[in-house]
Structures are given as structure tokens and as C-alpha cells.
Specification:
- It is a single chain.
- By secondary structure, the chain is mainly alpha-helical.
- The protein has a domain of about 30 residues.
- Helices cover about 50% and strands about 0% of the residues.
- The chain is built from two helices and no strands.
- The chain is elongated.
- The termini are far apart.
Length: about 80
Amino acid sequence: MVRRRHGKVGPRRGQAYIEYLIVTSVVVAALTVGIPGPKDPSAVGHLLNAIKRVYSGYSYGISLAELPDSNEIDDGSNP
């Protein structure tokens, strides 16, 4: 026969969930709240600005590139 212990098990049951919720909330708040100062974006804002800069450089480079004509491609067959 299995004996069950009666004690204070109830309040500790959801403790891990609450700890996870608090830690996750703090991390999300730290990433989304801006850095103190004028016009300083949050960490997410810095990431989005970096992606925009890289993509604008990439799209500019693609717009300048000239695609070769299929007749101009040297496949090595002509000496």
C-alpha cells in the first residue's frame, strides 16, 4: 500500500511556471525598451536598422550589376 504525504505541496506546484514567466517578461522588456537617451532605439530597433542597412546596400549592388548576355559567356569551348 502506498502512503501519501500530506503537506504543503500545493503552493509549490506552479513555482517553475511563475519563475519562467517572470524571467521571460524581464528579458522581453529589456529587449524592447529603448536605451535612455535621445533617439536611441531598443536592441530590437538596432537589429532592424542593421538589417535595413545591409538590405539597402545589397539592393543597390544588385541594381548596378549588369547581367551577361548568353552569347558573351565563355564556356571554354572556343580557343
